[in-house]
Amino acid sequence: MPLEHYINNKNVLYITTKNTDYIRVSQELKLLGEKTSKYRVIGSRSRFYPMRILSVFLKILFENIKYYDTVFIGFAPQLVIPLWWFKLKKADIVTDFFISFYDTLCFDRKKIKPDSILGRFVHYIDKDVLKKSALVVCDTVAHGKYFADEFHIPFDKFYTLYLEADTSIYHPLNLTRPGYLKNKFVVIYFGSGLPLQGIDTVLKAMALLKDDKELHFFFIGHIRNKEAAVQKPVSDNIEYLEWVPQDKLAEYIDISDLCLAGHFNAEIKKAGRVIAGKTFIYQAMGKMMILGDNAANRELFRESDMISFVEMGNEFALVQKIKKIKEERLASIHS
Question: Which fold has domain 179-334?
Answer without folding.
Answer: Rossmann fold (3.40.50)
